[in-house]
Design a protein that fits this description.
Elements: E1 2-6, H1 14-22, E2 27-31, H2 38-52, E3 58-61, H3 64-77, E4 82-85, H4 96-109, E5 114-116, H5 121-131, E6 159-163, H6 170-179, E7 184-189, E8 204-208, H7 212-220, E9 224-227, H8 237-245, E10 249-253, H9 258-261, E11 268-270, H10 274-286, H11 288-305, H12 308-320
Parallel strand pairs: 1-2, 1-3, 3-4, 4-5, 6-7, 6-9, 7-8, 9-10, 10-11
Length: about 325
């Protein structure tokens, strides 16, 4: 028996469970609650998955940390379960919280009862070195649900959007905006991040904790997506996918994960240099035929490499069917 543990609306993952069942791999849902804080919800969800499953069952955790929690729960309560954590997102920061998380991941990922995938081979190699783990992580690129629209690149004026929940280099956005006074920037961030942003230029508008529809509206009305991240771990991928379907050209810094998705023909990778960000934005605004080509290529890449069908097939074939627990 397979148990698919999620902490989102189940409708988002219908395809995964349906394809599992179609392949004769009986799968049931387990959900985290939404009534408590995030950490409490994650723990309760992991506990539910362990509790409802039986000896020898496999728990597949969409959110990797819940898979790690499920492994520790099994260890401490003497339960025998197989755990799969999809696409490890462990950050490489040195905060106390991240050091504690690294400890939990390190011992879980050494276990023969724990399997995991990564969304970038380069990140997987770095993770092995960081945690002193002698194992390979299968590559399963992050899922991108086709939203039902695919818009072409469009010049909406010198408007740049930057947004997301975490792991953004917000102050870099401010510095780049200062180098581009003729452009208008809309930045949408969590309220808890606002105090970290200093010296906001006059051409930047900051919004916090807006509804999803408002977030997407500002993204849609922009010309470019500026997405500098402050970690080598997976970050910003969902926003990147959404913006690409809306026809926006992406500018992001070159990290272990971003290099897996952004290539010569789609998106714009930039070194950690403010002036290079500004220069690249100016160049592609003045050469919009090249921007159009990159957006078209990225949309094609998402259809072929990050589809829901491809994601599910890779999990089944490269993890569940090719590896014995």
């Amino acid at each position: 028996m397979y148990w698919f543990l999620t902490h989102y609306d189940r409708k988002y993952f219908t395809g995964f469970v349906e394809r599992m069942n179609d392949r004769g791999m009986t799968t049931r849902w387990v959900h985290s609650p939404v009534s408590h804080g995030e950490r409490v919800n994650n723990f309760i969800g992991a506990w539910r998955a362990v509790k409802v499953s039986k000896k020898g069952d496999t728990i597949i955790a969409w959110y990797d940390f819940q898979g790690i929690l499920a492994w520790w729960i099994c260890l401490l309560t003497f339960r025998n379960r197989n755990i799969v954590a999809l696409n490890i997102r462990l950050k490489d920061k040195t905060t106390l919280v991240n050091r504690m998380a690294a400890f939990l991941y390190k011992y879980a990922l050494r276990s023969s009862k724990m399997k995991a995938t990564v969304s970038s081979l380069e990140y997987g190699e770095a993770l092995k070195k960081r945690l002193s783990i002698n194992r390979d992580f299968p590559l399963v690129r992050d899922i991108n649900l086709y939203p039902g629209y695919c818009l072409p690149f469009k010049d909406n004026g010198r408007r740049i959007f930057c947004g997301g929940n975490q792991s953004r280099d917000w102050n870099r956005v401010m510095r780049v905006a200062r180098l581009l006074p003729d452009y208008r920037f809309v930045v949408i961030m969590p309220g808890k991040e606002r105090e970290k942003v200093t010296d906001v230029p006059s051409n930047v508008r900051i919004l916090c904790d807006v509804p999803y529809k408002t977030f997407m509206g500002y993204m849609h009305s922009s010309t470019f997506l500026l997405l500098p991240v402050d970690t080598n771990a997976p970050a910003g991928l969902i926003v990147m996918f959404e913006a690409t379907w809306l026809g926006k050209l992406l500018f992001t810094n070159s990290t272990q994960v971003m290099r897996e998705y952004i290539g010569e023909h789609h998106g714009v990778l930039v070194r950690n240099d403010d002036q290079e960000f500004a220069d690249k934005i100016e160049y592609y605004y003045n050469h919009q035929e090249e921007a159009t080509e990159k957006v078209n290529c990225f949309q094609k890449y998402l259809r072929e490499e990050c589809s829901e069908e491809g994601f599910t097939d890779r999990v089944i074939e490269e993890v569940l069917c090719s590896t014995d627990f």
